[in-house]
Amino acid sequence: MVVPAPHSRFLADTLPRIREDARVAGVALTGSLAGGRPDAYSDVDLIVVVDDDAHGAVMAERLALIGSWVPLVAGFTGEHVGEPRLIVSLVGPPLLHVDFTFVRASDFAVRTKDPEVLWDRDGLLAGALAGRPPAGPAALDLQWMEDRFWVWTHYGATKLGRGELFEAIGFLDFLRETVLGPLAARRAGAPPRGVRHLETVAPAEARELRATLCGYDPRDAGRALLAAVELYRRWSVVGGAPVERRHHAEELAVRFLRGVVDQLR
After folding, report:
1. How far from 81 is each of 6, 47, 84, CA to CA, in Å?
2. pLDDT band at 151 (very low <50, low <70, confident <90, very high)
3. 160-174 pLDDT per residue, tens
4. Which of 115, 130, 207, 258 is deepest in the core (most CB within 10 A)?
5. What is the secondary structure of 173-218 as a DSSP string?
């Protein structure tokens, strides 16, 4: 694997500075740089493993610490993705997106896949990984999707019928991110991550998913909503655990959507 030059220079410059902090037990790398196919646009995803008794103090000064390690342009905490230990940052120039996640040493082994250990002060990181296998990515909850999809379909139809096209277009984005993208990745045997990397990991499904795109036009949005329904029907029934289908909700929601679309014609 070839690491892009800016990313390689960043790691070479930053790692020695992080190692100077005696509270840091190790540093690991995840994301595309660790096991994927990185390119010039890839993020750098770093796990900074901190001694348990120092974790609170380090969390309180994370931005200042990062600023002492790298030329920090901007940074903020990761509550928006459910990860308060995370600092999302821009560093540089050259500009790089770098995610720093500050993890207690005792929590390091809790993972879905193995990171690449860049530095391990006392062998703690290697020992933690050896002592606990990765949990693997969570399986898609198809019943969760089925229980919601037809309510969501009705919701999208009401936005379309009211002429709230920005809402309808945003709703289609939501369906791709929450339902159709994960189902497409599942069909291709790839981890479900919204619509990330679909063009690469599920090219055939990505081509089909283009039918759910639309312009700022009510009839085009109606066509895209109907296409989303048909893709869900097809992709949600292939393999996996048994799902209790909400046939009555499906029939009524699709009938309502078709009525709205017919009025637009």
Report:
1. 26, 16, 8
2. very high
3. 999 999 999 999 999
4. 115
5. HHHIIIIIHHHHHHHTT----TTTTHHHH-HHHHHHHGGG---S-H
Find where tokens 């940074």 sit. Answer: 75
CA separation (Å) from 211 to 198, 206, 214, 215, 252? 15, 9, 8, 11, 23
CATH superfamily name and code, 5-131? Beta Polymerase, domain 2 (3.30.460.10)
- The type of residue at 183 is L
Task: Return the H-helix or E-strand segment holding 79.
Answer: none
What type of residue sits at position 225? L
CB 253 within 8 A of CB 157: yes
Q: Sort residue 31 into left (φ over 0), alpha (ψ -120 to 50) or beta.
A: left
Domain boundaries, the chain: 5-131, 142-264
Q: Is the pLDDT assigned to residue 138 strictly greater than 80?
A: no
The DSSP 8-state label assigned to residue 47 in this structure reads E
Exposure of 252 by Cβ count < 10 A (0-12 exposed, 13-18 middle, 19+ buried)?
middle
**Which pLDDT band, with edges at 50, 70 and 90, does 177 fall under?**
very high
Sheet strands (E) in 38-192: 44-50, 72-78, 83-91, 96-104, 116-120
User: If phi over 0 gives left and psi between -120 and 50 gives alpha, with beta otherwise, what is residue 165?
Assistant: alpha
Q: Which residues pair with 101 in a beta bridge?
A: 47, 86
- For the domain spanning 142-264, the CATH number is 1.20.120
Establish whether the linkage from the previous residue to 38 is cis, with ω within 30° of 0.
no
